[in-house]
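Recap for those who missed Tuesday's class. We walked through two folding examples back to back. For each one, the amino acid string is listed first and its predicted structure tokens come directly after. Nothing is annotated here on purpose, so try labeling regions yourself before you check the end of the notes.
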Amino acid sequence: MSLISKLPAQGTSIFTIMTHLAEEHNAINLAQGFPGFPCDPHLTDLAAHYIKEGNNQYAPSIGIPVLRKRISQMAELMHGVFYKPETEITITSGATEALYVAITAVVKTGDEVIIMEPAYDAYGPSVRLNGGVPVYVPLDENDFSIDWDRLEGVINEKTTLIIVNTPHNPSGYVWKKDDVDHLAKIISDKPIFVISDEVYEHIVFDKKEHYSLMRNPILRDKTFICSSFGKTLHVTGWKIGYCLAPEKMSKEFRKIHQYIAFSTATPLQYAIAAYLDDDSKYLELSAFYQKKRDIFCEGLKAYTPFKFTPAEGSFFQTVSYRHLSTENDFDLAVRLTKKAKVACIPNTAFYKDKSDLKVLRFCFAKDEAELELAISRLSYAVF
């Protein structure tokens, strides 16, 4: 017997490779996107409380009612949009599951899906596993803004879905109201769905605003909004995500979700719901991460030759070394991990064709002392 791979070109994730390399060489891991500090002890105390209280059996497939209600309240507070907790909000096992289920709900064999790249590496494989055809549209090389003419030019009768990511990973670009309105104008009269990956929704800097796609009435009726508490509450290992979508779309979403994960960890849902009684837990997150971004960027500017524009959101900072070297980004990332003892991600990992624009991505969701040590080590990097 032989097993025919459904993802023949897919290898080991670059995040696994670089994290393993960081561990092997005792390097500071600014590669994989997870916080390098513990979450609020109050949150873990709540989790322990709900475990001890006996909330350890299956949750309802769509999520516990109190958490869905909290998410509805968050959306209304942040964006002035009301989603019905009973029929329009579903709890998932992380945002990645939400993304996969949403793609599965709308993509059929031969359907084309527009992905703007650089892009999170789960989008393309999820589309291909569902028989879809990813159509990649590159973002601007300098500021990662959208080339609207190019995007509109690839839309045809086979286009079923457009995947949006704001704040953007890896670049940190944050969609503006004009971006949202432009997308709505392009697809208003077309049978095209949208998935908006908004996992960094509460991490936006310099008094900029996260303008969710749900704010546009045209897009709200076409869009699956996918997010996660992993990034918001510093608990990426809990894998508690969610999807907001109109009732008819949520109905199809839930049909698939029940056969992929069925439900998500019950005591953790209760803990998060109780923790979110205090809105400041997410409303103050941007300021918390901006301090880290500023420390990292100020250090990069003062002590390294990299060129960059400070990220508008997320907890990633991309830097260019095009003016310093012709070395490919993977080799440089490996060399920095081994020699400078700082691990990062080569940006080719976010491009289908491994386009090498001489860009690296660093995660600054770390303790400030660790960021300062990383800057000190990078200052000695030789080009």
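Example two. Treat it independently of the first, because the proteins are unrelated.
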Amino acid sequence: MTLHFKEATVFYTAEGDGDTLVLLHGFLEHSGMWQPFISSLSKTHRVVCIDLPGHGKTDCFGYVHTMEFMAEVVYAVLKELHVFKAHFIGHSMGGYVALAFAEKWPELVSGLCLMNSTAEEDSIERKQNRDRAIEAVKTNHELFIRMAIANLFWPKNRTLYAAQIKETITEALKTPLQGIIAALEGMKARPDRQHVLKVAKFKTLIIAGEKDPVLFYKSLLRQAELNNCAIVSFPDGHMSYIENSQAFLKTAMHFIEKI
């Protein structure tokens, strides 16, 4: 399905009935990443998957896609679907967007799960790396994507999941240059949102990879402890929905069940 928003097109899907679960993909991904899990999750919930700006079938809106703007896009989709309460699971960048959404519309959130994501802002070093990434994208779009995707997996898993990595790269190569740069700029500019977890009146959960090459595992443990957030650890890297797919599905189903 599509939504016309600010003179551009937003793509999303909605499957199943029941309480709403919103699934938000990460950087260089799109809503199709959730496909292996929808049949199970949609048995009890209405599962909404959204292509975030500049990714998948959703248009680019400008040269910077802030997390706040992406959250506005999510809000517009939920308004179109008449959704007044939802659980959110966001992978990596999708987690940043979910946090921005929860900060602005906490009354619409039943639960917030950050998968391979963080509520902390980028460090100075990380912001510098974002700038280097932007230059690398401008220099060689394809090489940047191939390296970026492979580097998200625990090195020992790169052979085991070679087919999935190849497929992920193939899909990522469809991401327009403008969409990549706009997302990098938006992630670089995002503020620290640990307070969203700390004051939350809804369920919060962090799914962390012990061998995540992008995020510091010990930092996520500390973040969960300081902000009264539940945490589930998986033994592999940043791509838990591939590297630990069955464990992720089990965790997700437990997270959205009614208490």
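Answers for example two:
The longest strand covers residues 8-15.
The mean pLDDT is 97.
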